[in-house]
């Protein structure tokens, strides 16, 4: 099988913002669910990451989900962040997320840490999964699975362990972080014994791609979540392994690839902003319209969609329907253009 690049670049502690759709924008396809925090606990030795467990206020079952899924969380301030679910997919009585505090972040993780105390009510969207575990299904021929987590990137990997344990597929995992104290859920990982290898960067230096991958048998699958340099190194190391599936999820934004500068004109005012070659169109829009709606910045939530009134967009997302494309919408968080675009803002 060809090398599969299935990651969608979703991120934990993502600093998107949320507001009601503005004219000319599509509403995000979300159904929000009221939930209440039932439990919170530090999950790293250095207390930098906290797990939040929450349930429906009336105890009714939450929507089903599968390993690798994430949810949009609307924090009490109205800020929306996206977090991987890291609880038990077979238990619909509650969900669990885990969030590391980012001191110089844009506030989402700080609000989770300060505001999501037991009893706090907030809302989440139905789970979505762009990082599914595709093992154990009909006609599935994976010979072994290698799981690689970096830091808080362990969150989508954690539910995969239980699922893999229920299949006959051999698996192993390496979990990397700066220090042992910075690694999350070590007590839960302990039950898997030597199938989980812990790597402390501060002691041994950053692991090489070869160390991370180990000995991959033919038809192996690699699932990884972590920082972009780690993902990029793994991708490069697997270029010559067409028999290996590579599934990844980043937890920070991917850089713009093959970008050229172009202009955006706001139809309402005639104002023109330049989009730099290494900048997203959304970033340029936010410079002029700070209240513009967006969320994932990955081209899948559609909340940033804006209509192009003139010009030819270069679509770099498949999240819009043919009808929406025909209507002129594009997603400025990922899509670009070779020339000037006049947008309905
Ligand atoms: S912000 Fe989610 S698709 Fe653009």
Automatic annotation (TrEMBL):
The keyword Cytoplasm does not apply. Its cofactor is FAD. Keywords: 2Fe-2S, Flavoprotein, Iron, Iron-sulfur, Metal-binding, Oxidoreductase. Signal peptide: none annotated. PROSITE patterns: 2FE2S_FER_2 (PS51085), FAD_FR (PS51384). Residues 262-345 form the 2Fe-2S ferredoxin-type domain. This is PDR/VanB family oxidoreductase. It comes from Rhodococcus daqingensis.
């Amino acid at each position: 099988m060809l090398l599969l690049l299935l990651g969608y670049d979703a991120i934990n502690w993502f600093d998107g913002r949320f507001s009601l759709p503005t004219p000319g924008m599509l509403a995000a396809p979300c159904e929000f669910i009221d939930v209440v925090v039932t439990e919170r606990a530090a999950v790293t030795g250095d207390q930098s990451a906290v797990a939040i467990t929450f349930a429906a206020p009336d105890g009714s079952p939450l929507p089903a989900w599968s390993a690798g899924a994430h949810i949009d969380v609307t924090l009490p301030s109205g800020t929306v962040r996206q977090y991987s679910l890291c609880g038990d997919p077979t238990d619909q009585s509650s969900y669990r997320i885990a969030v590391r505090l980012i001191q110089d972040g844009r506030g989402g993780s700080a609000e989770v840490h300060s505001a999501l105390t037991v009893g706090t009510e907030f809302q989440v969207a139905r789970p979505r999964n762009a990082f599914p575990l595709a093992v154990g299904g009909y006609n599935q021929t994976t010979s072994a699975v290698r799981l690689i987590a970096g830091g808080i990137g362990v969150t989508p990997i954690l539910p995969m362990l239980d699922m893999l344990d229920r299949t006959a597929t051999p698996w192993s995992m390496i979990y990397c972080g700066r220090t042992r104290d910075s690694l999350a859920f070590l007590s839960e990982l302990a039950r898997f014994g030597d199938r989980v290898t812990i790597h402390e960067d501060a002691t041994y230096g950053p692991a090489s791609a070869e160390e991370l991958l180990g000995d991959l048998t033919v038809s192996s699958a690699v699932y990884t979540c972590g920082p972009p340099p780690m993902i990029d190194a793994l991708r490069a190391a697997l270029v010559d392994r067409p028999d290996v599936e590579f599934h990844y999820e980043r937890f920070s934004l991917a850089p713009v690839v093959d970008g050229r500068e172009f202009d955006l004109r706001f139809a309402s005012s005639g104002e023109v902003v330049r989009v730099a070659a290494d900048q997203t169109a959304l970033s340029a829009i936010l410079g002029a319209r700070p209240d513009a709606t967006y969320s994932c910045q990955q081209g899948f939530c559609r909340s940033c969609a804006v209509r192009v009134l003139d010009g030819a967009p270069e679509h770099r997302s498949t999240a819009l329907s043919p009808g929406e494309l025909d209507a002129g919408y594009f997603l400025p968080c990922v899509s670009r253009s070779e020339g000037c675009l006049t947008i309905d803002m």
